[in-house]
Specification:
Layout (H helix, E strand, L loop, with lengths): L10 H4 L28 H11 L8 H19 L3 H15 L4 H6 L4 H5 L1 H14 L4 H20 L13 H16 L9 H20 L12 H11 L2 H9 L9 H16 L5 H9 L1
Helix pairs in contact: 3-4, 4-8, 7-9, 8-10, 9-11, 10-13, 11-13, 12-13
Amino acid sequence: MDQFYTAHKKRQEFSPRYHQPYGLNLMKPSQQLNSPPYSSLSAHETSFHSSIINKDPKTISNAELKNLLDQHPKKLKKMRRKNPQQQLLILIDFISTLCRVPKSTLLSVAQNKFFTLLQMPFTDLLQRWRHSSSLTENEIYMFRSIVKLVKRFIKATDANEVLPSWLLDSMFLNIIADCLTNIATSEKFLYDTNNRLLKYFTRLIETYILYQEYFDDENHSDQDTFVLLLDPILQCLTSSHYINAFTNISEDKKSMTTIEKFILLKCPSFLISYNGNYAYYFFEEKYL
């Protein structure tokens, strides 16, 4: 985390967009190049940032992408002590670029250390959302970007060996489990101010559903890894939130709310997609 992300003591100081309403259409970080905090970049740092946002993701070569990935941690580390805002915003731009490169190009750099280093900032975002139930605007954008990148990785390959290993790390999954438990037991995660974060967290759960569907192979050594999420998912499905969502849903509604999609669609889908050895034991012992 030292290389990418600095804990932010005060939200007001961290994000120039913090006081803007949640419903506002915000500029992407790359659209703020001539305004703070980008205006304080040195010529060398501006050149590096331009090399990211001015690249056409669809035409970037494997070698060019590898070069950017290799130098990115070093550049951000130099910025860390100057201005954490620069660090985060440029990282967001870079991840957004990665989400748009061709699948074959993305897979060519799948083993790059850059993707391993994303675990720490993402873990920190999940932890602070779990404890405070809110994040700054830039942090929300960061959360969204990482989830989008992970989902793109899963859709791009049929070999789980090329995916970031931290996705299946037990400590990381336990943090997700804690978030699920908090959602099941607390009302604050259902407030309107949390709508986008819950939406992106739902997408994170969806990536694990996709993983289990894409790599549904009894020979995979990690097939039982997701047992860590079973009980928290079931807590959501047996919570008052589920009862309220199920009771209030109507045939006349043209679309589902974020909480309805999460608790009525994705939570059951996760259970259905789970194919580990503990499935029968878990349900028989706990719920039969």
